[in-house]
Amino acid sequence: MSERRPGQWPVDHPVHIEPTPAPAADTIPPAPPVQVPVPEVRLVVTVDLTGQYDTHDAVIRDLYEQTRYSTDCHTAIVRLGADALRVSSGLGSVIASRFFLAAREVEIHVPAGTRWAFVADEVQQYMRHYAADHAQLLNRTRAPG
CA-based angle 62:48:39, to the nearest 5? Predict the structure, then answer.
């Protein structure tokens, strides 16, 4: 039996080893991150005014009801039926007022073969007017300096 005390190293003459850094593992350069194309998602709001309308107020009320909870969107599509076009004068102004701040683009769909294509031009003119008026309002309310 050896005469070793508890807690004593069992080797009588230990060899002193200098610490050295660990050998470098085979370093594999990291692969470049995979670029997965992300498709653009656009929110499109559709307003359907193709129903049966007897008065201008009914058309405006329906437009308001359909857009009351709308949020900002990329494109607003407004489908106009023959009745809505027939009973509503100034429809371009009303449509522009609902979307000039909320939509980047507005599409006006009218029945084919009708003379109502001018409504899109009317909407565009009013949207320019409202946007310019809004810009003037913002410029007046900014603090000078």
Answer: 130
Residue 80: φ, ψ to 5°: -110, 130
Q: What is d(CA 139, CA 107) in angstroms, rounded to the nearest whole number?
A: 29
pLDDT per residue of the chain (145 residues) written in tens, 0 to 9: 556 666 666 666 666 778 777 766 667 778 888 888 989 999 999 999 999 999 999 999 999 999 998 878 999 999 999 999 999 888 999 999 999 999 999 999 999 877 888 899 999 999 999 999 999 998 888 766 5
Strand 73-80 to strand 44-49: parallel, antiparallel, or no bridges (unpaired)?
Answer: parallel
Are 22 and 50 within 8 A, CB to CB? no
Q: Tell me the whole-structure pTM to 2 decimals.
A: 0.70
Q: Report which of 44, 122, 66, 42 is spatially closest to residue 90, judged by C-alpha positions.
A: 122
**How far is CA 14 from each of CA 1, 17, 20, 43, 83, rounded to the nearest angstrom?**
20, 9, 18, 76, 103
DSSP 32: P
